[in-house]
Amino acid sequence: MERCATRKICSLPRLHLLSNMRRFATLLAAALAITAAANAGTITGTVRAQGKEGAPDAASGGKYDSRQFKFVERIDYAEMHDFVVYLDGFQGTNVLRTNQTAQVVTDRRVSQKGAMFSPRVLPVIAGTTVEWPNYDDILHNVFSISETKPFDLGLYKHPEVKRITFEKPGRVDVFCSIHKAMNCVILVLENPYFAATDERGRYVILSVPPGAYKLRAWHERLPSQVREITVPETGEVRMDFTLGITNLPKYWTCAGCRVHRISASRPRCSSRR
Fold first, then answer.
1. What pLDDT digit, counting tens, does each position of 209-235 carry?
2. Is residue 119 one of the residues assigned to a domain?
3. Closest CA to 245 of 217, 224, 216, 266
């Protein structure tokens, strides 16, 4: 069969059409992104921690100043950091559109240096792959027994880099099987609208679609706190948090009885007659 000598020339209009379609699709995506960004608000605020009222301070004296307890490290709530603030799930008047209004970072890193993990707390969106480079000249073994993502990266050191993908939302506590002080937390979230606080407890969540949401402030060793928030189409809305040992079930012990949970009314002791 004789081949058409003009086949290449005849295909040029089709290639030109495909090129124009791709260019139009790119411009349309850019226009949608600009429109979405224009119709989005910003959430700002601060998060701080507060100790329990009535707890003795370091200057209380007595047993607290004894040789046994004087050098026991106490929690300094004023210096606590590594808070994370995020929109809770997909609740609200809008469905959170992860592909339009926020830049989704799906490649993050936790470094091992000086037998420590850095950062100490890393919030990521589900589906993110995290690198675990070891910059020490000694072996480390990164692992987790978390139900959200159990894994074991095995023994390795520089220059080898291991990677793990976190598909499921939840908290993942990570440790080194060799070094006691090496631990960190990967907080896997459902949407990209989150932020870690800076050294002064400040946070900023950008490009949030307008609507009503539940905003959660989280810390690894404190109860989280949820507030309802309405995000405007443009501009900022502020929400501050103070986290402490609050809103937890409390227990009391009656002499000679088992421990009872405190409810709306104090339960009657079962041993009373």
1. 999 999 999 999 999 999 999 999 999
2. yes
3. 224
Residue-wise pLDDT for 64-109, tens only, equals: 777 777 777 788 899 999 999 999 986 445 554 444 444 456 569 9
| Domain total in the chain | 1
Model confidence over 161-187: pLDDT tens digits?
999 999 999 999 999 999 999 999 999
- State pLDDT tens for residues 18-48: 555 555 444 444 444 444 456 899 999 999 9
CA distances from 125 to 16, 99, 105, 128 (A): 39, 12, 8, 6
0.90 exceeded by the pTM? Answer: no
Token pair in block for residue 236: 């900022």
Task: Determine the 3-state secondary structure of 195 from DSSP.
Answer: strand
The answer to whether position 196 is within a domain reads yes
Is the C-alpha dihedral spanning 215, 217, 220, 223 positive or negative?
negative
Identify which of 224, 226, 212 has the alpha carbon closest to the alpha carbon of residue 90.
Answer: 212
Rounded distance between C-alpha atoms, residue 52 and residue 246, angstroms = 8
Tracing tokens 């520089």 back to the chain, one arrives at 158
Domain-embedded: residue 9: no
Question: Could you tell me which of 179, 184, 180, 139 has the C-alpha nearest to residue 162?
Answer: 139
Which run of H or E residues covers position 260? strand 259-261
DSSP 134: B
Q: What is the CATH number of the domain that holds 136?
A: 2.60.40.420
Question: What Å distances lie between residue 97 and 100, 136, 255, CA to CA?
Answer: 6, 40, 56
Could you tell me the residue range of the domain that residue 104 belongs to? 23-53+73-242
